[in-house]
Known about the structure:
The structure holds two protein chains of two kinds. By secondary structure, chain A is an alpha+beta fold. Chain A has eight helices and 19 strands.
Amino acid sequence: MTFQPRRTTLFDQQKAAGARCVNFGGWEMPVQFTSIIEEHQAVRTTCGVFDISHMGEVFVSGPRAFAWLQHMLANDLSKCPADGAQYTFLLNERGGVIDDLIVYRMADDNFLLLVNAAKIEEDVAWLEQHVNDGVTIDNRSDTMSALAVQGPQAPRVFREVFQCEMPARNSFVTLEKCRGAVIAAGTGYTGETGFELFFSSSLAADLWHALLQAGVKPCGLGARDTLRLEMCYPLNGSDLSPDRTPLEAGLAMFVALDKADFIGRDALAAQQAAGLPSKLVALRMTEKAPPPRAHYPVLVDGQLVGETTSGALSPSLGEGIALAYLPPDFAQPGQVVKIDIRGRPFAAVVEKKPFYRPSSNRPS
Amino acid sequence: MNVPNDLQYAETHEWIRVEGDTGTVGITDHAQHELTDIVYVDPPKVGAVLTGGQPAAVVESVKAASDIYSPVDGEVIAVNPALASEPALVNTSPYESGWLYQLRLTNPAQLEALKSPETYRAQIG
């Protein structure tokens, strides 16, 4: 059997815009168009668009959908208002992360789960394995596309394309555009203000061109990765895994331990009572060094204490940044560590998260 | 892509300029274009003994670290000091100010096996 990476509906348009593609989670996706640094700066200072059609759109509906999702997801869905969005987790029984996702409350009995591309099949299988009467799971990942428009000029772009105001952070509206329904949400994963669009793939080309006409710069996954890393937003498969809990990842604010019950709750409560075995920390290089990357050893006083899960040269800071799980004793801001890069130790320090505070980000 | 006529090329996208028994090594315009935004260069140490076809340096873009292979055997006699503060010279001037290192050739016969500009141009299409 030959493995063929999948392509999104916008593959040809993106190639025409100069995309250089790589395999990402089984998808042939643009890693960059002109330059990762340029695209990163465009999102920080003007506006960029990312094709996120590889991500999964899974609708959960029915009279029992709300109660069932409260059991399946770690965050408290009752705190997500109608037309609102919430960051949450699918956890296994051990409290480990199957996937991190955004849930959009379309109606009191209808929810859209936006899940990671590489996890669509696993998430849907997990959901179907636990499904109850009164709950319908509808995976529309193959027929829907999505675009993320991010940056300080996003509100202006939204007005130009849709002739109305951009939705507030973590809320969304459904609009008619290009003769179809478009879900427009004030969400994103770069730290900047901006919006994400979810729509039938038949509208993809028209929306893409409308955004480019409004002056938005096409951006690839390379910039998406440096942007999210500067914000310390985790990437599942790198910073999150089935063997790490959201508590270890420092994401307790998205976990409702006070909720009646949900899969993984007992394990999380036990872990919290016993004390966390490790914490995901932000590390910044403090001497001239090669860029840190994933799976580099982290040392304290010459002893191995962990390894990096993500790393890059931060285009905004001009310094190497990384995330790593370290024992709590070494997880306090100010802790000095060394990162072993090709056999040479380079000095780094545990920083308060995030590394970067965008100027355009409104409080949520 | 620029492929100067006065250089010899390795299949792995390094070039070498030979003057007497000294070779100057860098990466090609095609290679820098493929790697994009170069943010760090880890050069070999002066005095290091390199083997043709083996890793000699690491060039890092935002996205990835890439090994650079020595086109031929030799002993490193200099590394480009400018790259420590300005690694992007490899992007902007791959054949001139973006050179990586110089070596004293210990097996000049290996030069015969390298690619001519014409052959390298055909390789990169």
